[in-house]
Amino acid sequence: MFRIVKKPFFATSARITLLTFIASVLAQPAFVTTASSDGSKGEQRSVAVVDFHNVSTHADPVIAEVAGNSTILSLLEIPGLSVVSGEKVKNAAAKVDLSDPVFGLQLSQVGSAVGTDWVLGGKITRAEANAAKRTVSVDLELNVYESATGNLALKSRALGAAKGVENDTSAWNEAARNAGRQAVQHLSESLHMKGIVITKPKSGHVRINIGTQQMIRPGAEVLFINQGQQTASGMVVNADLVESLVEVTPPEAANAVIVGDTVRVTYNPSKTFALDDTEPDKAKKSRNKSTTNLVVGILLVVAAAALIGGGGGGGKSVPPGTAIGPPANLALGFTDTNIPGWDVIGVRTTVRANVTDANGRPVADGTPVTFTTEETKGQILDPVVETVQGAATATFESNAPKGNGLPEGVPASGICAITASVKGVGGATITKTTNIVLSGDPRIVSVTPSPATTSAGGSSLITAIVTDVNGNPVDSEKTISFNTGKGSMSPTTRTTDDKSTVFTSTLKNDDADPPTAGTAVVTVQMDGTDAVSTTVTFT
Q: What is the mean pLDDT of residues 253-280?
């Protein structure tokens, strides 16, 4: 009978190199210096690993040990961070109740006692045999906590399966090993996901620039960070190609989240555990079309924190120790893609370029990126910026293009091009250009009822077209009011979102029972614009 022994899992209290990539996404406690796998010295992070638990109905405790061995062996493929295990960890853990290791405060006591930055625990939550399919399966959860605070930094959940029957020990061991390997893979997906808040489309929700292209899935859990401080948390409820909608919990916590805040993914479910994406395809296509019309380049974080020496996520798999290559890929995005700068000087937005090598890994720190823009429309403050972890961030400032004059025959436009460039292989220049909108004063272009005539008990959809003076969407957080002298409007207000130009409300003839015939005058108003009215006849 095959059985994994304990020695490989907690063989020694010596530090073994593990997870360099955690360092780029977690908080910044003190460094520890240890010898790396090649014998060199360097700044490293440390993690304590405690025994995994089996809380499933399958009583054999060895599957937790097997999953732990598999997890460690998978992580050992990535050099960088040291792990403390063995008697030192066991002695610290003996003083703490670890009956349920997902509780961060208990686990963090172990990390603090042995002096590590983080502590990692795991547990088998389910182990089942399927007699019909002759398979066994194991669910494994991994949790990484900050030793100093007990805050959850990262977590992973994976399903491992193997061919076999319920009394087949080797099959259970194989399923546990597979769960460990897959848990590390999903942990890696979360580790390289970092982005920013791009809009706040509705109450209690924000939209982030991480999407399915970066392998995020509904059910992913995220933290919002401003100036190094966590402000809120939430869960991805809809995922598009390059952006996702996050529901903030509790909803009122969204008030503390602002556009441009950093987003860190703490958990990204595998396809097995992902939630259903309930947003209708029609709505997605409509929003994607609007985004495309604005040419919003939001491919910010495909490789912003890719695994060092190991690819992972969106990057290629490369052997450990492979040197970072020259720039090969460039992505560009903004904190705000629509700012009210058509006739105002000094309105700003942050521009961020992400630069990766041919393997999808962030280029070396200090790589210069040059930002340029149309001089009549704006300027880049400090146009040459050096990368940090593959990212270079600059500031665009509007120059009130309305007052700068345009060449004869050139129509007015609030669209402004911003370009980032970097030197690649052989000195070849890699460029990326993306447009933003410099919106002007809003105007109500038209108000249309559908239908214009209906029965006394009927209703009519009122559609208002709202743009700026150049026909572009207005910037966000502007209120549009719908008012009627007969019946009621639902909703009575709409709020602009910096992408949309079409806003609707429904008129109902419900101010009398039974409804009476007559004509309703519907008026649409917006600050800084002339009101526009239309009529609906109820017969």
A: 72
